Amino acid sequence: MKRSEKKQQTRGKILNAAVSLFREKGFESTTVQEITETAEVAKGTFFNYFPTKESIMETLAEDRLHEVDEYLRTYGLQTITFISKLRAHFSFFLGEYHFNPELTRRIWQHMVENDFLLLEKWRELLEIGIRREEVKADTDASLWANVINSHFYYTLAACKEDTREAFLDELMLLLHTSLKGILTKRGNRAMKRLVILGGGYGGMRILQRLLPNDLPDDIELVLVDKLPYHCFKTEYYALAAGTESDHDVRVPFPKHDRLSLHFGTVDSIDKDNKLIHMRGEEPLSYDILIIGLGAEDKYHGVPGAGENTYSIQSMEKTRRTYETLNNLPAQSVVSIVGAGLSGVEVASELRESRSDLHIKLFDRGETILPMFPKRLSNYVQNWFVKHEVEVISNSNITKVEKNGLYNHDDFIDSDAIIWTAGVQPNKVVRDLDVEKDEKGRVVLTPHHHLPDEENTFVVGDCASLPHAPSAQLAEGQAEQIAMVLKKRWNNEAVPEKLPKIKLKGVLGSLGKKHGFGVMGDTAVTGRVARLLKSGVLWMYKHHSGV
Question: Whole-prediction pTM value?
């Protein structure tokens, strides 16, 4: 081993031993002798590296300070605004806070008292802010660097919060109040960043409830979605069948100067560093996160199902399904796997769109739509008989191939196979290291956030809730999340128990003229049900500004 490497290794052993003992016994109660014994080095060796026990604290802080620029580069945080960058620095400096808040505070108090490196860092950030027109041009960077340092020191001495986030909130509130006078409008915006992942029904409703007047001045709102518009997932069946156009099943996202739209694909979420990793892009940082990434098809381990079936779970997949179905020659066979609400609506809409096709609907149960009252189930079954849609009950799809599927052991030729036999949360959510229910949905507190992270919410199909996922449920949940956030921001008490989310009912279509559903305790069928569903969609578009 090279001499320099050995010295670095010895230094690391001393630091690790000291930190371990400081956490266990406290700084005052730890002796140099104990540190050297734990590190297995001689006392003289210790003093070759550290003149005093106190100098260890200074070294720990300096090491962290020298690493911050690499941290910002690694996670693409150089371009965030001045206030957000300031918070990112403090967040990184206090990365060990959860191990021992008191020790972490003491280390950085010592740093502020005995070193000028922090002042240089704040001055550097201020000068960058001035160049980027986030900090006013006539700002005295040296003076305000001292202001930042003094606020940091005061918070270290006075704040007794147990968590890093609570400490940062207190510190940044103090800093933002003092720095507000030197910040431009551009630099003032991003004190904290609220990121909504997914512009579905839940994400859209939160935007509607926070904009334009209920977002604090120190909150930057960012919506992340693959597509530049909000899509009506409940209407994808009509797009797939060709009875509605692409334009009919989407609306633009709200436009507001407080809202930033970020279009891209989320690959993963780093909860520890509060970063969203984007495909082909730099990571996106957040302070508050709302995850509404929706659901994907679940294939239940059926071989070939993922590769050889079409889907209506996303706009992109639904478009491909539409192209395939509408390019089929006359008398082709279309098999639809799954006779829940989605399967029923696809089958009926496709029958109306293509009367020449042979449509087969595979149902695992004895009767179709068992979750509905028997009268509705019979009504839908009779509609299919009348319109020559073949319903195959008690089915069990064991394998799917390119030109057909196996029901039990019987092969059935199919020119196109559509999968509507179950969903699961988005893969990003499935990969999250959090508690989940038996269906893979995230277990939440009654206030819809993670049990150990009150600033990370989950809305919609990925959330574990008493009801089956639906647009109504996502919107009801979003209403409550928006209420919780607004009460927090206004320093109002959040109710310990939120009211149950009330669902108005479920409506399904059978083509453009007939439908079925339950509104409250009332079952409705025929034209009335279809008119109700059309009315709900019209109202939704109207409230979305279309």
Answer: 0.69
